[in-house]
Amino acid sequence: MSVFSFKRSIGGLLLVLPLVLFLGLVFFAPLAGMLGLSILDKELREVLPRTVATLEHWDGGGTPPDSAYEAVVRDLFDARQTKTAGMAARRVGYHDNGLRSVITGTARALPKNISGVADWKETLVAADQSWASSGIWQAIYRSSGPVSDFFLLSAIDLRRDATGAMHRANNEGLYVNVLLRTFVIALTVTLICLLLALPTAELLASAGATASSLLMLVLLLPLWTSVLVRSAAWLVILQTNGVVNQALMKLQLIAEPLALVYNRTGVLIALTHILLPYAVLPLYGVMKSLPKNQMLAASSLGAGPVEAFFRIYLPQIAPGVSAAGLLVFILALGYYITPLLLGGAGDQLLPFYIAYNTTQSINWGLASALGSILLVATVLLYFAYVRLVGVERIGLG
Fold first, then answer.
1. What's the CA gap between 240 and 258, in Å, rounded?
2. 3-state class percentages of the chain: helix first, strand second, coil last, to nearest 5
3. Of the residues 65, 157, 158, 279, which has the fewest C-beta atoms closer than 10 A?
4. For residues 279 and 200, is the Cβ–Cβ distance under 8 A?
């Protein structure tokens, strides 16, 4: 390689370096952090360091050695001073919610001065009888970290028992059902958007310049409005005394108001309205570039409208259809506000549970695991779709 070619290569790398750094900071670093939080399990280790160190060589059977009782008393005494006992209680409570009160109650019940304690086990059991059984010790042992698959397994409704064997969690398949519901709603919205986008994009592509500009303005106008405002507007429009029900009743099409909000119907209507422009624009770009006389030529050669559409027109706009479908589907997976306002308890998507575990239950590990599961499932479906359809037919070839 000549010196000139080498300098050009270095210059090219320097030009793309800001973009690489930007993507690394705002995209890959947060993803790595999310994946890391889903397996890191250091919370209990930081609050009860002596206890964790003592239980590292415990076989998990019966009750631990007497040194573990001393370690717990000293750790909980320190945690009471630093007001961190609640962190340990929350982490142990993920295995058994009843153990939260055991940890916090024990921390409060310990004597003000532990320097004169003669029998550590008696002191701990006197604070709460649960310390005499193996259940709480096993929960602490399984929560010791520093890495764990607990949160990832919880995200797919699995748990490990005391022997390490996996079994179904006692939540009736909550998160698996939510993940399936998320994909079903996203797929339904995608199909509805594609059905509405095809004639809309065709109208935009075939209309004159003035009409096309006005129609494009109408299409893009919702994108300039906040998602929260649009969702709240649909809540007003679709409610029992809203515009839609009142109009249908005045036209005598229905005898009583329809249930259009706080259910799946309201979610699908609002999401379709929000995401429809993202389906129209890729289709419009493909349709605008096609010669306008192809359908006429097919008709002159004896092909009917249906045959001409499926044999001539649809194969050429397939990249636009695929791009529109992928864009709408992936965007629909991440919606939180719209299902929250317009859906019922059985219509919330996975982002709702991610937000709940982040802001309400303060379970960052489970929130990160749910986000990781959604990311992995989306990527796997994407690659399966690419393999099935082909790269060149989704606009990537």
1. 7
2. 75, 0, 25
3. 65
4. no
What whole-number distance in Å separates Cα of residue 279 and Cα of residue 320? Answer: 9
Q: Helix or strand or coil: residue 40?
A: strand
Task: List per-block mean pLDDT (blocks of 10 residues) for the chain, which spans 397 residues.
Answer: 65 79 84 86 90 86 85 90 90 86 90 82 88 88 88 86 76 85 95 94 86 86 86 91 90 88 93 93 87 72 73 81 89 91 90 90 89 88 76 53
Q: Which residues of 229-252 are buried (b: 16+ CB within 10 A; e: fewer)?
A: ebbbebbebbbeebeebeebeeee
CA distance 244 to 320: 33
Length of the chain: 397
Q: Contacts for 216-224 with beta carbons within 8 Å, 24 or more apart?
A: 219/276, 219/277, 219/280, 220/277, 222/273, 222/274, 222/277, 223/277
- How many other CB atoms are found less than 10 A from the CB of residue 32? 11
pLDDT at 197: 93
Q: Of 384, 357, 380, nearest to 370 (Cα)?
A: 357
User: What local confidence, expressed as pLDDT, does residue 384 receive?
Assistant: 79
Q: What is the pLDDT of residue 13?
A: 77
- Phi and psi angles of residue 262, each rounded to the nearest 5 degrees, phi first: 60, 35
What does the longest C-alpha to C-alpha distance in the chain come to? Answer: 103
* Cα radius of gyration rounded to whole Å, the chain: 30
Helix, coil or strand: residue 158: strand
How is 227-276 classified by DSSP, letter by letter? HHHHHHHHHHHHSTTSHHHHHHHHTTS-SS----SSSHHHHHHHHHHHHH
Distance CA 104, CA 20 (A): 47
pLDDT of residue 37: 85
CA distance 253 to 223: 32
3-state secondary structure of 168: strand
> Nearest Cα to 80, choosing from 119, 124, 112, 33?
112
Extract the tokens encoding 40.
Answer: 């890191």
pTM given for the model: 0.84
Neighbours of 148 (CB within 10 A): 18
User: What per-residue confidence (pLDDT) applies to 195?
Assistant: 94
Angle between helices 227-238 and 243-250 (to 10 degrees): 30
Dihedral, 161, 165, 170, 171 alpha carbons, nearest 10: 120
Picking from 63, 64, 66, the residue whose alpha carbon sits closest to that of residue 121 is: 66
